[in-house]
Specification:
β3 and β4 form a beta hairpin. With 287 residues, the chain is mainly α. The chain is globular. A two-stranded parallel sheet has the order 1-2.
Length: 287
């Protein structure tokens, strides 16, 4: 089995190694730039897109924190809400997705801007952000997988979350240097994010309606995440019988995404054809 951290650096040199927090900031900056750039292809200016993305990002961070607290410490949301939102801790991607969706419905849909375009541009950038953030998780050792004998299983060093859990379960001695080999679930998600980013890049000019790309990438991610939970070992928190909190959230989101797709195809209440599609239709009509 390979070790996750084979390079031994001086203490000061670890400052240069990106961890979760650093990759989170980098991903938000790159994500906002990518999303605003994609929105320009349908008539938005980058400035207008950023004016929407900045508050959306704040809402997403709050939703990500609330989603994490709902899974691990729901009582703190109403007993000490401000402290819970501001203290360091984990974040939930699903919480961010729900918060941004609500932000779009409440703040963008009432305007003359396309909610579907906002969703597509967000889904495009979100997958790249997922790739970067999960790599940061890998560097920090969080979101690790269960013990495995597969050849690509990775060991984490003493003091890492995986190591501490294995010690707590009595699987290893606290005197050893490495954890047992585990599934690198962070890298699984990071690779998926990169793959979905390239898929979104290919699908962008071929969308039939605004919102289609967002629905496609979110469905793929949600299905993947449901099964990824089977090999994650850090889930914990609230469970619903044999299903984890994340798996129940996946099922709920799949139902909402199916409803959104049906709504877009049948009624076109919240979505409109992308400018590229409209241009192609106009050329066909005039020829």
């Amino acid at each position: 089995m390979r070790n996750a951290f084979l390079i031994h650096l001086p203490q000061w040199a670890w400052i240069l190694v990106p961890d979760y927090s650093v990759m989170l900031v980098i991903s938000m900056a790159i994500g906002c730039w990518v999303i605003s750039g994609k929105a320009r292809s349908d008539g938005w200016t980058r400035g207008r897109a950023l004016l929407i993305l900045v508050p959306a990002l704040v809402v997403a961070m709050a939703g990500a924190k609330i989603g994490y607290l709902l899974q691990y410490d729901p009582r703190s949301i109403y007993t000490r809400p401000l402290d819970s939102l501001l203290v360091a801790g984990g974040y939930s991607l699903f919480g961010a997705m729900v918060a941004v969706a609500l932000f779009g419905l409440l703040c963008i849909h009432p305007t003359n801007l396309s909610l579907g375009l906002f969703a597509d541009a967000t889904g495009y950038g979100l997958m790249l952000m997922l790739c970067l953030i999960r790599f940061g998780c890998f560097m920090s050792g969080c979101n690790y997988g269960s013990v495995t004998s597969l050849p690509w299983g990775l060991r984490f060093p003493a003091g890492s979350p995986a190591f501490n859990r294995h010690v707590a379960l009595g699987l290893i001695s606290p005197d050893v240097s490495w954890s047992l080999p585990v599934h690198p679930t962070q890298l699984y998600e990071s690779a998926l994010g990169l793959g979905l980013f390239w898929l979104a890049r290919d699908l962008w000019p071929r969308r039939k309606f605004n919102g289609q790309l967002y629905i496609i990438v979110c469905v793929i991610y949600t299905v993947f995440r449901f099964f990824l939970e089977l090999v994650r070992d850090d889930a914990g928190g609230i469970a619903f019988g044999p299903l984890t909190f994340a798996q129940v959230t996946c099922l709920a989101l799949l139902a909402l995404l199916a409803l959104g797709y049906w709504n877009a195809v049948r009624w076109k209440l919240l979505f409109s054809p992308p400018r590229l599609v409209r241009a192609r239709e106009e050329r066909k009509a005039s020829s």
